[in-house]
């Protein structure tokens, strides 16, 4: 009947209206939805390529005077990040260190858990007489909690409570930190359709966000000096632009590319891909871990004893190195002999 058809059409119209009302239409609205959705991501798979270009020392000889020359360090890594409780990261990849025409490649596996970095070298470069192969396939631990940089942040008093976290996420979602300057249409990354935009930082909104975030986290206003430093930092980012790819269905960030000129001599280029959002990744501390110490490096550079010459112990050779603390050296040598 006409009444039945009218009801069907009315229901269909209502559904279309409701779904379209919830779907962002403009690039600005899509980016805003992406910012809101990324605030709810607790884990993701990651793949990135980072290039650092500037002045670097040549790795010719451990004892030679290091002279800075134009070069680069290229990192090509992939892995996973879990932020559900505390930040945990697992990465595997390689690095190419290049100065002039010379190149030193290496590869490694990295894990980061609670301010502790675990490193296992899978392949190493040749640096003069330094035999780094002795360090391969062994997990080493670098505990950043021993340094002032993270000591205060690791304490219970500095952890954000649930109320502050909720406020910060709400602030981030509505901050409109990104301004779209070009719509490059639809791109397909693997099997994911994405909106491709060229964007820049909205400096005024970023400044407001940082000030409000300080009120939430530290419960205070920025000082005059801090405001001045903030203005200078934001001014340096005035030329910053990036390319972003936002999923057409999930409104999540799937890829970002940007270059940043840090100063006249140094530039950073980054291409980052995200996937497997909110997947349950298992990232654990590796087994058979050693504390890293400089004696491992020094012992790798010591030549074998030549026949007929007096044997000099590792201890005696290391004591000739300026700046080595005898007591610390003794502890490291005992660890090395284990």
Structure report:
- There is one protein chain.
- This protein has 338 residues and is an alpha+beta fold.
- It is built from nine helices and twelve strands.
- It has helices spanning 2-22, 27-38, 148-151, 162-173, 203-218, 224-236, 294-301, 314-319, 326-337, and strands at residues 43-57, 68-82, 88-99, 102-113, 116-123, 139-143, 178-189, 192-201, 241-247, 253-261, 267-275, 289-291.
- The chain has a twelve-stranded mixed sheet with strand order 7-8-9-10-11-1-2-3-4-5-6-12, with helices on one face.
- Helix 2 runs antiparallel to helix 4 (162-173).
- Mean pLDDT is 79; it is low at 13-21, 149-158 and 305-312.
Instruction: Please state roughly what percent of the residues sit in beta strands, choosing from under 5%, 5-15%, 15-25%, 25-35%, 35-45% or over 45%.
Output: 25-35%
Structural class: alpha+beta
Number of strands: 12
Query: How would you characterize the largest beta sheet?
Result: 12 strands, mixed
Q: Rg, please? A: 26 Å
In which range does the helix fraction lie?
A: 25-40%
List segments where confidence is low: pLDDT < 50 over at least 5 consecutive residues.
13-21, 149-158, 305-312
Distance between the termini: 89 Å
**Number of alpha- plus pi-helical segments:** 9
N-to-C series of helices and strands: HHEEEEEEHHEEHHEEEEHHH
Averaged pLDDT: 79
- Principal-axes geometry comes out as globular
Largest sheet strand order:
7-8-9-10-11-1-2-3-4-5-6-12
List the helices and strands and how they pair.
Elements: H1 2-22, H2 27-38, E1 43-57, E2 68-82, E3 88-99, E4 102-113, E5 116-123, E6 139-143, H3 148-151, H4 162-173, E7 178-189, E8 192-201, H5 203-218, H6 224-236, E9 241-247, E10 253-261, E11 267-275, E12 289-291, H7 294-301, H8 314-319, H9 326-337
Parallel strand pairs: 6-12
Antiparallel strand pairs: 1-2, 1-11, 2-3, 3-4, 4-5, 5-6, 7-8, 8-9, 9-10, 10-11
Helix pairs in contact: 2-4, 4-5
């Amino acid at each position: 009947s006409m009444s039945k058809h009218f009801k069907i059409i009315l229901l269909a119209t209502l559904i279309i209206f409701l779904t379209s009302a919830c779907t962002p239409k403009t690039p600005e609205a899509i980016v805003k939805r992406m910012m809101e959705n990324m605030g709810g991501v607790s884990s993701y798979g990651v793949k990135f390529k980072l290039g650092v270009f500037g002045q670097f020392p040549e790795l010719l000889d451990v004892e030679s005077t290091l002279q800075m020359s134009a070069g680069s360090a290229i990192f090509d890594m992939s892995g996973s990040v879990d932020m559900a409780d505390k930040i945990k990261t697992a990465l595997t990849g390689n690095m190419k260190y290049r100065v002039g025409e010379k190149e030193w490649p290496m590869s490694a596996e990295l894990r980061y858990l609670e301010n502790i970095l675990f490193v296992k070298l899978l392949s190493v470069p040749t640096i003069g007489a330094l035999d780094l192969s002795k360090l391969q396939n062994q997990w080493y631990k670098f505990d950043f909690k021993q340094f002032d940089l993270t000591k205060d942040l690791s304490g219970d008093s500095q952890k954000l409570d649930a109320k502050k976290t909720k406020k910060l996420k709400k602030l981030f979602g509505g901050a409109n930190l990104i301004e779209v300057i070009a719509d490059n249409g639809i791109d397909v990354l693997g099997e994911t359709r994405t909106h491709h935009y060229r964007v820049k930082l909205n400096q005024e909104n970023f400044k407001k966000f940082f000030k409000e975030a300080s009120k939430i986290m530290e419960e205070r206003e920025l000082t005059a000096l801090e405001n001045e430093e903030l203005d200078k930092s934001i001014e340096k980012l005035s030329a910053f632009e990036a390319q972003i790819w936002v999923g057409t269905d999930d409104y999540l960030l799937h890829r970002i590319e940007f270059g940043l000129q840090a100063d006249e001599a140094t530039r950073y280029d980054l291409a980052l891909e995200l996937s497997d959002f909110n997947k349950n990744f298992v990232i654990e501390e590796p087994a058979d871990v050693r504390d890293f110490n400089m004696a491992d490096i020094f012992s790798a550079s010591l030549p074998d004893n030549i026949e007929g010459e007096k044997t000099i112990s590792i201890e005696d050779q290391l004591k000739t190195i300026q700046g080595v603390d005898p007591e610390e050296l003794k502890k490291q040598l005992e660890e090395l002999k284990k």
